[in-house]
Amino acid sequence: MSLLEVHDIHTFYGKIHALKGISIKVEQGQIVTLIGSNGAGKSTTLNTICGITPAAEGKILLDGQDITRVPAHQIVTRGVIQSPEGRKIFMRLTVRENLEMGAFTRNDKAEIARDMDFVFTRLPRLKERIWQLGGTLSGGEQQMLAIGRALMARPRILLLDEPSMGLAPLLVEEIFNIIKGINEQGVTILLVEQNALMALEIANQGYVLQSGEVKLADDADKLLDNDEVRKLYLGEV
Amino acid sequence: MIASSTFRQGSYAAAVAILLALTGVFGKLDERQVVTGAITLSMVLLAIMLCGAGLMTASRVKERGIVAMLFNGILGSLIVGAGLALVMLVENAIDLTFVFAELKTDPITPVLTFGQTLSSGIILLLVLSALAGAISGALLSIPSEARQIILLSLALTASVGLLEAQIKSINTLPDALAVVGVLGTGYLVAINQMQRSSLVRLGLGLGIGAIVGIVLGLIANGGGFGTGSRLLSAPGILSQVIVFALIGGMGSAVAATQRNIHNGTLFVVGFLLSIGVLNWQNSMNWIATLLILIVFATLFWLMPRLTAEASSRFETQPRPERQVNQRFSLLIVLLVMLVAPLFLGQYITSIFDLVGLYIIMGIGLNIAVGYTGLLVLGFVAFFALGAYTVGTLTTPSLLTCGGILPADIARADIPTICTGVMTFWQAWPIAVIVSMLAGVVLGIPVLRLRGDYLAIVTLGFGEIIRLITLSGDFKPIFGGAQGIGNIPVPVVDLTFLNPAWRFELGSAFNIYYLILFGIVITAFVAYRLGSTRLGRAWRAIRADEDVARAMGINLTRAKLLSFAVGAGFAGLGGAIFGSWLQGIFPNSFTVLVSINVLALIIIGGLGSIPGVMLGAVILVGLPEILRELQDYRLLAFGVLLVVVMLARPEGLIPPPVRRLSEQVDSATPQQGKA
Amino acid sequence: MASTASQPATTSGGDGVSLAQRIIKLLRNPLQVAGLVIVIFLVWTIIQNLTGLAAAGRPLSVERIIRVIIFGLAQGSIYALIALGYTLVYGILSMINFAHSEVFMSGAYIGFFAIHWAEQSGLLYSNTALALLITVTVGMAAAVTIAVLLERIAYRPLRGAPRLVPLITAIGASIALQQIFLRLFGSATRVYPEVNFYVLPQLFRLECETIDGAEICKGMDLINGRYDVQLLGMELQLRPIFFVVFFLAVLMMAILWYIVRRTKIGKAMRAVAEDRKTASLMGINVDRVIVSTFILGAALAGAAGVLFALYNTQVSPFMGFTPGIKAFTAAVIGGIGNIPGAMFGGLFLGVTESLAPTLLGMSSQLEDVIVFGLLILVLIFRPTGIFGEVLSEKKA
After folding, report:
1. CA dihedral B83, B88, B89, B94 (to 10 degrees)
2. For residues B247, B248, B250 and B253, what is the CA-based torsion angle, rounded to 10 degrees?
3. Residues B437, B387: contact at Cβ < 8 Å?
């Protein structure tokens, strides 16, 4: 049984039919990536899984349990943690408070402290800025903070929405290395990206979304070789 | 069988019912009769409560079938009934009157036990509750159109019953039947002659109406309709001919017209018939009630069908034809408004006057809030300024007496010293200008403010004006708490044409025409402004200020103009107000007036002039008429605001979305499509 | 919701601009010039009055000024407590809770029934402290109930609606609440009974009588006492109630401050205020946080209501309107969304409102005009408030 199964979900924004029957499977320990152009429905898929924009039809199963209708703040307690598009860290809270926010649903003080140390070890630049307000960090640092914040919740599955957005290529590489490192520690990751190349390079499985539907689904390395994918998303002529 | 929601909703409904009961509302409403000698207003309220609860609870289980609906409906209503019974038991056990003061004069028990003993009364109440619940459940199982018709007809019939005393002498049954007949004939003729131009159809309508008018006139002159008929026993055949010709023409015009006008006409027809029936029976007895119910039910059944057809006929007409119809209809509406006071009597006319003033203010506020999206809460300030300007300029005051306090001048000397005293006609333009200036002055500091801030600041401004006019420090100018008295009535002096033509606009009747004039002017100006570039700029600002600015719209100019025009209209209203009451008191200008105006344009539909009018009728006219509810008026008002915002925030008559097709239509075939 | 080290306010004036340049820049804006002229005029009038050069009369006595300031501080504390309710809700929902003034009123009004019962049953005399505690608790509970109902019925369904809609709803709710109280409880003004709360008879040898040759002192009457005091060569008449109100208000504000800054729920509030969606991604139950915010604000307002009624004695369904507007003004002055700002704004407003008529030689009828005028002045010179607005990015 997969860790996360999404069965044929349809999501609407008012009258707009954003997701037209998306089905995805994420196995434990994998990195699965959703790629596609703007407006394809990638972020919407993540938001639907997290309960922010609930699905009108379809089912979402976490470890076999139906979480389709569970409210957003409860999905978090089940270990589905999203680092949203645009990072969305709390500008007016310090780095430390941001991380504490990530652990909001947890009560085990000692473990939380340990996790924070762990985050600082993995992301030393955050430790340097521990008392700074979130709004004063650079883009790359904010992305690290967002990921760190998500980690503080001890996710069973980590949903990352476009971590490369607005970052310089070197930073993107650094972020992706961090993501890979996190995955190697055992965290399952569902990665939404416009930077198809980098995403497919670190992922195990890939789904190509277009206009709210899954156009292609395969192993990531097979997708890297796929002609259509190369043409549309990897910039090959 | 029983839904979980039923207990919850029933309890909410019961809580509301109990709260209302504790305010003594049943006792107060018991005075007013709806069906003479049989049903009082308090019984109507009880019915509304019980059926309302039943409808709510039953509708939740709609899918489960009629038995479930009946069951849950009964349960819901029973809970409410039980709640009320409980309150009665408590009322009889302990003295509640210290906390709930109204129960002293208006106790619950006598009313809700229907005059029986406590125990039998309670049983009766519970039985009635169950019955109400069953009816509600049953109502939900019939098609929704039928249900709406039933409910609306009941509501309107009850309204007629409430207003019985005031309206029963407006017209007789023969009047109504004649009007309906002629109108209908013109209508049918027009439908049959759609292939001809609208002018031709109008002519036919006018002609037929004239013929009928002649016939009726002859009969009337022979005494055939008795006295009491306003229309039919008017003196001379000529007036009959003219009136019925116009009615016939209206009939043919309405056959192909827009929704609002068509619906409005049908409503008027319905009311005329009901009033006619009422008049015939002379009181709201069971026969009258039944007949009126049938009238309204028929009306509501016909309305969607007929209006849809008329509307589509309207659409398929070419533009010039449509305009002819539209203009004629508006002309008739205007004529009706002109002669209405003759029919409606002093009391209702004075209500129209108040409603009219609020319409003028509403149109003004609509420009700031409806068109431009600027939330102004202190609007009453401009109204006050208009009134005070007219007050100070038309009476001996500091301004008109050359800087000397009138109190310091001997009575006899006043005419010679106070040469600045003006007439109403000289003073009102100044009032409008003063208000406009004030609008600009208010506008300047608040240009940068948005939304809620703007509201509060304008509220503060309104309060400042009120406090200043009230204060003792400014008494020489504003008259302090006593205000300004002895304001002369406006006088229309046409004696140069005819020595007899000197009209003092003092009575409710006379001032009606002044107010009507004001409404026509302001509505016209507002409507036209809406189609200009300025109007479009306003609407852009309302949609999104930043984008508007990026489009190159001068925000400052547009906003200040919006304030100025709106304030100017309010000033006009205030000027008329002061002269009407012949005196001004600062406590007429409270926040509540501002809120009233705001509420009526919102509930009527922001940005729409017919909406303003409807809103004024509902929020200002209705409470004046329902006197018993005077005490509850504000409560209903507040609740209505909340309910409307929750249910239909765009208002009752939202402004029509301007359609691209209008512009395409206006391009002539030679020019081709844009 | 905010730290004092918040985002800098959006007014002009960069670094390295000379003083002369800044003055010229100030003068360019006609609005600011007008405001400046008004301020200068006011200062001139004040100086005139203070030194008695004004035509009418003798200079103002320092005693009077001190008395007025003390009253102003007490009044201002009440405003501050109410202002906090406005600021909390505005920070989290970006809407003015127009009906908050009625929440304040409900505390005072329902508190009346509690204290009336205490009087009738004798508890008010046998155990004044307990009676007062019960009254305040009842007042707070009533206020909280009203606020929660408001949020559930009128505000929650309209969370995403355009600005105008919740505002109108709030206005409607405010009117409805006033009227419900009026209709339910009658139009007669309710009057709080006279409360005498004596403390520390050993320390304060006040309210003494001689019984059987021995002097028995009841102590200082916190609620109703008026005492002549000699201080620094001045004769002052002091009422302890004002100090009590001030002290209690500061205490409550300190508790609120602690809750918002230190506790988990407080941090959740700040997170929700900043970015609602992301906060829910943290597992924060946004609805619950919003209700908690309302509850906090209402508790403060309810307590304020009872305190206000204790020295004002009269309660009516309409008593909330004016303090409500003033409290909102205070919140704006301090910077809406800014908690210490609201506290400061309230106190500042209270003192100014009391002091200004005296200093300017106007009647106190016009003290409300001063408040509104102050609001407009603030909005001209510093629209973001004295401490700067702290709002989420999503201000419409």
Report:
1. 120
2. 180
3. no
Closest by CA position to B577, among listed B311, B382, B405, B413? B382
Q: What is the tens place of the pLDDT at every residue in B274-300? A: 988 888 888 888 888 999 999 999 999
**What's the 3-state SS for B559-576?**
HHHHHHHHHHHHHHHHHH
Residue B225 CB neighbours (<10 A): 18
Determine, for residues C271 and A82 on separate chains, whether the beta-carbon distance falls below 8 Å: no
Closest CA to B105 of B13, B25, B203, B221: B25
Length of chain A: 237
* Residue B461 token pair: 């401004």
Indicate the residue of C277, C283, C390 with minimum beta-carbon distance to A104.
C283
In this structure, what token pair is assigned to residue B135?
Answer: 């009816």
**Contact exists between A and B (3 or more beta carbon pairs < 8 Å):** no
Q: For chain C, what are the domain ranges?
A: 61-194+245-381
For the record, the structure tokens of C89 come out as: 């809700």
DSSP lists the bridge partners of residue A81 as A158
| DSSP state, residue A18 | E
Which of B464, B473, B590, B602 should we substitute to test contact with C (largest number of C Cβ atoms within 10 Å)?
Answer: B464
- Whole-number Å distance between alpha carbons of C105 and C88: 18
Q: For residues B446 and B458, is the Cβ–Cβ distance under 8 A?
A: yes
Span B203-217, average pLDDT: 83
Residue B302 touches partner C, C-beta closer than 8 Å? no
Q: Judge: C278–A153 Cβ closer than 8 Å, yes or no.
A: no
Query: What is the Cα–Cα distance from B656 to B527, expressed in whole angstroms?
Result: 13
pLDDT in tens, C67-82: 889 999 999 999 999 9
Burial readout A74-90 (b: 16 or more C-beta within 10 A, e: otherwise): ebbebbbbbbbbebbbb
Residues 460-519 in B contacting C (C-alpha not used; CB under 8 Å): 460-461, 463-464, 467-468, 470-473
Confidence band of B229 (pLDDT split at 50, 70, 90): low
Q: Which tens digit of pLDDT belongs to each residue from B51-68?
A: 989 988 888 888 888 888
Report the greatest alpha carbon distance in chain C.
Answer: 79
C93, two tokens:
């929902």
DSSP secondary-structure letter at C153?
Answer: I
Query: What whole-number distance in Å separates Cα of residue B671 and Cα of residue B236?
Result: 54
The partner residue sitting opposite C280, judged by closest CB among A52, A93, A97, is A52
- B residues 599..638 contacting C (CB < 8 A): 599, 602, 606, 631-632, 634-635, 637-638
For residue C175, name the pLDDT band (cuts at 50, 70, 90).
very high
Angle at which helix B591-604 crosses helix B609-616, to 10 degrees, equals 120
Beta bridge partners of A5: A25, A61
* Cα C244 to Cα C248: distance, rounded to the nearest angstrom: 6
Q: How many helices (H) and strands (E) does chain B have?
A: 28, 6
How open is the CA angle C140-C144-C150, to the nearest 5 degrees? 150
Chain C residue nearest residue A152, CA to CA: C282
Q: Tell me which of A92, A142, A157, A158 to substitute to probe the interface with C (most C C-beta atoms closer than 10 Å).
A: A92
Mean per-residue pLDDT, C98-111: 95
Threshold 0.90, pTM exceeds: no
Identify the closest residue of chain C to A107 by CA–CA distance: C264
The total of other beta-carbon atoms located within 10 Å of residue C137's CB is 16
Q: Over B390-437, what HEC string results?
A: HHHHHCCCCCCCCCCCHHHCCHHHHHHHCCCCCCHHHHHHHHHHHHHH
How is residue C114 written in tokens? 């509690």
Fold classification of C61-194+245-381 is: ABC transporter involved in vitamin B12 uptake, BtuC (1.10.3470)
* Residue B463 · residue B470 · CB < 8 Å: no
Between residues 59 and 88 of chain C, which touch chain B (CB distance below 8 Å)?
none
